Amino acid sequence: MAKKEMAVVKGIDLELYMGRNGENTRATYTLNEDGTVHVLNETWSYDKRDYIEGTAYKADPKSDEAKLKVKFYVPPFLPIIPVVGDYWVLYLDQDYTYALIGEPRRKYLWVCFPFIYLIIYGVT
After folding, report:
1. pLDDT for 11-67, tens place per residue?
2. Residue 86's Cα: distance from chain center in Å?
3. Helix, strand or coil for residue 37?
């Protein structure tokens, strides 16, 4: 039986959406002049900073759906191999404080609260 495609947010305001932080882990989003988003994911463990940078962009520039693609290069210090993933905004509250993020395979679900960022694996 085919699964129904997940509904996503429409008309997302990317400037308002940016800026979710969590303890010891931070995702920083910066809107680029070309409409793409610079993504910087950082984490600290044992006083050492690890990070990866990438780019997010609308999967279909003509659509108002919040279906984004995120591209990172692996390994980050040698940007040769691009890794692209889906990032679908499934729910946003009115003030853009809470978010539910998923991807079409339904393998990952991100729940974003102020100062908390949960990742749930194996969601089907």
Report:
1. 888 777 765 544 466 778 899 999 999 998 887 777 788 888 899 999 999 999 999
2. 8
3. strand
How far from 89 is each of 8, 9, 23, 109, CA to CA, in Å?
A: 6, 6, 22, 10
**Beta carbons within 8 Å of 25's beta carbon, 6+ residues apart:** 41, 42, 43, 44, 117
Give the C-alpha separation, 112 to 101, whole Å: 8
Measured between alpha carbons, how far is 85 from 49 in angstroms, rounded to an integer?
A: 23
pTM score of the predicted model: 0.70
Q: What is the pLDDT of residue 78?
A: 75
The CATH homologous superfamily for domain 14-88 is Calycin beta-barrel core domain (2.40.128.20)
The residue type found at 66 is A
CA dihedral 52, 82, 19, 5 (to 10 degrees): -140
